[in-house]
Every structure is written in C-alpha cells, then in structure tokens.
Amino acid sequence: MSNDVLNTQGGPERDQYARVLNSNGEPIPHLYSAGELGGICANQYQGGNNLAECLIWGKIAGDRVSLNHDDIAEDVSNTLNGINDLIKGEEKNITLTEDQYLGESNSGIGGKLVVRVTYKDNKIKKVDIVENHESEDFGKRALKIIPHEIEKENSTNVDAVSGASATSCAIKEAVKDAINKAK
After folding, report:
1. Quick one: pLDDT at residue 141?
2. C-alpha distance from residue 119 to each of 25, 122, 146 (Å)
3. Alpha helices of 29-84 — where are they, by DSSP H?
4. Which helix (H) or strand (E) holds 182?
5. What pTM, to 2 d.p., does this model score?
6. Where is the secretion signal located (predicted)?
C-alpha cells in the first residue's frame, strides 16, 4: 500500500483584492474569488486542503464585496433558491399527526437536515426527510436509502451509504433526536 496526494492548481486569476481578472488582466466588476476551483474532491470537503488559502482569500473577498459600490442597483431581489441556510427565509410549516416527531441535525454536508419520524410502541414506523441541503450526488442516495434501512431495522444502527457518510450520519442523528422527543 502506498499513499498518494493529488493537489490540482487552478481557478481564476485574481489581484491582491481578490477581484477576478479578465484575459487582459483587468478586474471584472463585482466578481471575487476565494480558494481553488480545480480540486477533485467536490462535495467531500476533506479537512485542511488549501484551508488557509480559502480563509485568507475568503476574508479579502468578503471585505471587498461588502464595500459600498455606487454602480450597483439599489433594488436587489430577495428571492431564495430554497437551499440557502445563510439567509433565513420563511419557516416551513411541517404538519405533524399523532405519534409523529421532528428531529434535526446540523451534521450533514449541506447543513441542517430535518426528519419527521412516526414512532409508536418503540417502533420506528416511518422516516420522512422534510428538509435537507445535501449534495445532489451521493447525498441524495443516502436520503433515499438510510430512512428505509432505519425503518426496516427499527434502529439507527445501520450502515452508511458509501461516499455519503456525513449525510448518512446526519439522518441517523436527526432520527435519534426525534425519538428522544417521543420518549
């Protein structure tokens, strides 16, 4: 067995203010960059990879983008795309019937994950994912598989979906939270 490390370098060229430069080396208005765009580990978020670069350039980009710019229109739309946890939109109205409980976890790749668990007589009858912001690839597979496995085994002690361990753990954690509320 041998260890390999692959670190790709790429992404947009930027100046000292984190502004993205066009092919002539001039800043593109209102476009800032932080971190690398060339990594092969999308949605896996391996700890520490280029972390300092992302933090430093993220701070610079954030400082610059927050400055008052005269050429930006004042009327900015507040329409949410439904997956942005950073901007609190309308609360979802989740209906609960008898023997149903909500559970939450913030351990997923996309942040907050909410489940509705139907639980009666120490039996997990149904697990519904009512809110999630997980990745569209492996995360979505876990959202389909893990609830079914939990129902079948009547336990959160089920195997994680390969490639979606964070999402799998978040679902199990949210179900445990709901069951704790039932007791």
Report:
1. 92
2. 61, 7, 16
3. 51-65
4. helix 165-182
5. 0.55
6. none
CA distance 146 to 156: 9
User: Which whole-number Å values give the CA distances from 5 to 8, 40, 131, in the listed order?
Assistant: 10, 11, 36
Of 99, 178, 163, 97, nearest to 131 (Cα)? 178
For residue 94 the two structure tokens come to: 């989740």
129 and 103 in contact (C-beta within 8 Å)? no
CA distance 33 to 36: 9
CATH number of the 100-182 domain: 3.90.1010.20
Q: Tokens 């209102």, residue? A: 30
Where are the domain boundaries for CATH 3.90.1010.20 in the chain?
A: 100-182
Nearest-Å Rg of the Cα atoms of the chain is: 21
